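Hey team,

Filing this mostly as a record. A colleague (T.K.) asked me to run one chain through the structure pipeline before their review meeting, and I want the input and output archived in the tracker in case anyone asks later how it was produced. No errors, nothing strange. Just documentation.

Input sequence:
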Amino acid sequence: MNDERNLTGINAIPVGHPHIRSSAPDAGRIAELTTDRTDFKREIGVFGGVSVIGGIMIGSGIFYLGAYVLQRTGMNSGLSLICWIVAGIISLFGGLCYAELGCAMPRAGGSLVYLNEAYHPVVGFMSGFTTFLIGGPGSIAAVAIAMMTVLQSLLGISSDGVKIGAIVLIIGTTVYNLYGVKLASTVQNVSMIAKLVPIVIILAAALFAGSQTPDLSMSSASTYAADNNTSVFGMMALAIVAALWAYEGWTNLNTVTEEMRNPKRNLPLALIIGIGGVTLLYTLFNYAIMRVLPHSTMVSMINSGDVYLGTAVARQVLGSAGAMVISVGMILAMFGSLNGMTLAFPRMYYAMAKEGHFFQSFGRLHPVHRTPTTAILVQCVISCALVLMRNLDQLTNLVVLSSMLFNILVIIAVPILRRKYPHIERPYKVWFYPVSVIIVAAIFIALFIQGAVDDPVNGFAGFIVPAAGAVVYWLFDRRNAREEQING
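Output structure:
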């Protein structure tokens, strides 16, 4: 363990503080951005990093999104598998952008730090404020509700019981995350392994016991496109959008960079292994479904509104216990996602406070456990409130649209920061730069526009909440200026 929490001067220069900015980068700020010193305990290794990513990414989506991808590709099996792979590649290159930035600037807060330096501290704060009010608590609330919804069908829980159970789950994960990253990371590692067991069992059983030979040719795709007044490219775009929701979560590892051992090596390694592994898992899982269920059966199920193809596979391959196995897998998957988000998000709020434009209590660590206690507790309160105020569908749309705009800005920050800080050591650099950055940024811009058009209410929230964040930043900025005048 590399415990350097007692080193002095760590936070003497708040990253991106406007009152110490100069027209050119100064040595002090560069040193603060690139230092390996930290107040946190470094207890997350490569496997722990992979567990955080995989734990958040592998949720309930693996069990039902395959149906939507199939539907949007005109029920073409080959084209749907290609869309899963392409969505994984897009996520991977987005993750590689985060890896370059995280290795160059290994500070807690992740995207908050990169946005501060690439644009202006107000942009980073708007991102953090949106995550604080919507992205973090909304994601936690959505997963908690989804997990209780699975239990609802098994235990006959009422709708009110689902809400109460979701709140209990949130409080429970909050409590043990207060006791340090080591315990939370251990829980994440265990849940990561535990939830993969039923998925792998079903995957292996389907691949070896399945008797179907799926038609992977794409000849029918052009015919379907012509009959429905669209194009194969348009079909793929819609299908990739659906698949990308299953890959959400790869941005969160950077928020705990200061708690990783040797982040300049382990951060990109964990991102590549995590996102690459999830891409392989998703593709094989959907292929395994096609090995068991006849194409006509999948079409019939999807047309009737039954999107849980994995449950049907488990029931057919494993018998009466199949449905229970898949339900346990879904519960474990969502629990790992819930724990990973409870661990990761408060580190961004901590960075906001250290930057000087948020409540100081959020920037304090527990004297023993070295965790941002206030940030974790407030996140819990907001999450519980959102459970009571919103349903699952509303929460999902709100979270996705509120976060996508800032993901675009972080990806574009890669070339901006290369030019602004050309001499910063970059142990890792994005592959195929700059073409990869341009393509990934363009794809995410298209997704954001489409999502805002399809859901204008939540699209509006995706703009109004960051705008409110700018106002909060201005208020703290005025307070800081007054304090400097008094103390100066």
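Quick notes for T.K.: Residues 45-487 form a domain with the Amino acid/polyamine transporter I fold (CATH 1.20.1740.10). The beta strands are 2-3, 41-42.
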